[in-house]
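All the exercises in this workshop are built on plain-text protein records. A record pairs a protein's sequence with a compact description of its fold. The structure tokens are whole numbers drawn from a learned vocabulary of backbone shapes. Once this layout is familiar, the rest of the handout is easier to follow. An example says more than a description, so a record of this kind follows.
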Amino acid sequence: MQRKRPRVVSVKNGGMKFVNFVTEDNPFSDELVAPDSFKQACGLIPGYQTFTFSNGKEIIGGYNHQSGVFHGIRKFCTILGIKNFSKYNLVLLSYEEGSVNNISIFDDNFLEVLFPGTPLSPAIYIWKYISTEYNRVTNFWRQTDYINVYYGENAWKLQVRSRGFKCHRTTIREGWMEFRGDMGLQVGDVLVLECDDYCVHHFVVRVIKNGSA
């Protein structure tokens, strides 16, 4: 754990990014302080924020304009059953227009920590978000489009839909629940969709069962 807290901002590779080193004085449990250079570069940051972690878990938080602090991250600590992130090294926040934030946690070897869990939500949800990390694929889709996924001799047609121009998030809509049931997916399983560079509407499915990774 570091004693000093460098403030780094980057505009490369899509969106704004900054890091906070975890320190003994600030073990980081709920609030992430944005540096001045970040606030100046981003302009008006919405008060309502969504945070997405490495395991795909999304939590709702916010941004305080007066203090320049992102908050609400304690919910993720509660899910993990930890008090704070004191045993880790640094936190990276990647901010994109539309209140979309990806938060990555790194250990002392600067390797990203993959927390237990999965992008799969409890069964009450009838759609599934696709991370903005895969925009290089989803940008080729129309606002409402369809993709085909294949597993062995089985195939499914799924509707995908963009949420609009400002928020680049895409969701799998129609067909998701049937697909999930047919595949026998459970919370904790990781679903991998692989496609050829020139065929972004057809995907081969691979499943990593919870506990087998």
